[in-house]
Amino acid sequence: MSTRRYVVGKAADLADGEKMAVEVGGRSIAIFNVEGRYYGLLNRCPHRGADLCAGRFLPRVTAAVPGEYHYDTEHTFLVCPWHGWEFDVTTGQSYFDPVGMRGRPYKVDVESGATIAGMQPGPLRAETVSVQVEDDYLVVDLRPQRPQRAQSARTEKQETV
Amino acid sequence: MITPTRPALIEPVVDRAGREALWTGSVIDVDVHAQVPSAETLFPYLAQQWVDWCTERNWKQPQGPLSHYPPNSPRTCRPQWRPADGRTPASDVDLLRRHVLDPWDVDRAILNCYYGIDSIRQPDWHNAMAGAVNDWLIEEWLNKDSRLRASMVLPARDPASMIREIERVGSHPGIVQVLLPVRTDALWGRRMFFPVFEAMAEHGLVAGLHYGGTADGVPSTTGYPSYFIEEYAAEWQAFGSQITSMVAEGLFRVAPDLRVSVLEGGFLWLPAWGWRMNKDWKGLRREVPWLTEPPFDLVRRHFRFSTAPTEAGPTPLLEKAIGWLRSEDLLMFATDYPHAHDDDLAQLLSAMPESMRAKTMAENARSWYRL
């Protein structure tokens, strides 16, 4: 088990749609529960460093022509609280420049207390009391992830000027 | 201490030798003006009802140009181009030949007649006058010099009438553009104008956004200016507003083939506009989701700019500013005959990469207008 993996909280404490920021390995990580799946982002907008954890999730809105909106509540963007830049929380990619501008994603796993009991360090240590090691815990992996590309990402290099 | 200067090329080229000293390649002039010398000039192209309408009212000319270009302002006409016999400058094709077409040895020149008919409020008279100006341009100018192409004018207050006029004369082979005054009652990007721009695109016409216009509102963004210099120096703001409107409202999603020329609007304010639009689009694009790429990219694809007037400044700074356009395809040479901007074309060319010069002098316009 790599020492780059940190136990940061109980899965049950982060309900669907909720988010939290945790300090691990000297950095702040924003963790999101999106429909039962957990995602981590460096809690720092790549633009000016705002806390992404303070951002809202807003439906993706697109339009092929003026006035004909596709308001997609099935897919949401995390919107930076400072300048409104939209990020795909699953990949860290920004809407406007998926190649050049992205938040830094971290892997968040859910593992049972039995697996992680005794794991070091992190803001939360799994309780070793026999009953509680049965719970599921959130584990942040600080090892770099392979870059992912969102399905809908425009692949063309965008000039940001 | 007196610094040596290069030859006085700031002066308009008045003979072939001056032109050759400046530029030996081909030349296309995208903004030369035809001025209607008198109301009577248009009478042969008007129904009797409107001839009588003009004469009964002792109507002489639209009000717009009188305020845009005061007759005695040094900007209205270069001294060399003001007819000695007191005729209206730029009012006949022989003058144009002598002053621009021959000495500049142009391949093509695009004729724009901002007569100010948008200051006429009676809608049917307005329509009739637009038709008369267009027929006069075809008969008295296009038919007399094969180097000329022209912009048609429109009754700019009524989209349905605008479309009818495009359908009436927009297919004439000499008509390559529609002249749109930059100051309007409503911004050109508003949806009510979408069908007008679609009609232009269908006819292969460029939309020519040009200095002038008689809006219902004030001619500045905030109240009436006091002086001509205010009107003139601040006019670029109207161009900025129109381009912003056309981009933000999604006009180019509706008319993806539309080309827009910015004539007599300057161009070095463009990098600052582009930076601001691109920056704010990143955070505000949710309200205009049809805008799916950086606005400046859209401008580079759908807009071209005439070189007159040039906001030049010292040459090293001009070089930087041109570099900030990040395109060699945006600029098109114009004399803006007969107006006097005192642009130093030699300096402008010297501030460009060599590969950009031929494009600016002719090739950008040739492909843009399909000449």
Can you tell me about this structure?
The complex is a heterodimer of chains A (161) and B (371). By secondary structure, chain A is mostly beta strands. Chain A contains one helix and nine strands, in the order ββββββββαβ. In chain A, the strands form two sheets. Chain A has a six-stranded antiparallel β-sheet. A three-stranded antiparallel β-sheet of chain A has the order 5-6-7, with no helix packed on it. In chain A, a hairpin with a 2-residue loop joins strand 2 and strand 3. The C terminus of chain A is likely disordered. Chain B is of the alpha/beta class and 371 residues long. In chain B, 40% of the residues lie in helices and 11% in strands. Chain B has 16 helices and eight strands. Chain B has an eight-stranded parallel β-sheet with strand order 1-2-3-4-5-6-7-8. In chain B, helix 6 links the parallel strand 2 and strand 3. Chain B starts with 15 loop residues before the first helix and ends with a helix. The mean pLDDT of chain B is 92. At the A-B interface, strand 5 of A face helix 12 of B.
Helix/strand layout:
The complex is a heterodimer of chains A (161) and B (371).
Chain A (H helix, E strand, L loop, with lengths): L4 E6 L8 E6 L2 E8 L2 E6 L13 E8 L5 E11 L6 E2 L17 E8 H4 L19 E6 L20
Chain B lengths: L15 H7 L4 E7 L5 H4 L5 H9 L7 H5 L24 H9 L4 E7 L10 H18 L7 E6 L5 H11 L5 E7 L12 H9 L3 E5 L17 H6 L2 H13 L2 H4 L5 E4 L6 H15 L10 H8 E4 L8 H10 L6 E2 L12 H6 L3 H15 L3
Parallel strand pairs in B: 1-2, 2-3, 3-4, 4-5, 5-6, 6-7, 7-8
InterPro entries (chain B): ACMSD, Amidohydro-rel, Metal_Hydrolase
Protein name (chain B): Amidohydrolase
Keywords (chain B): Lyase
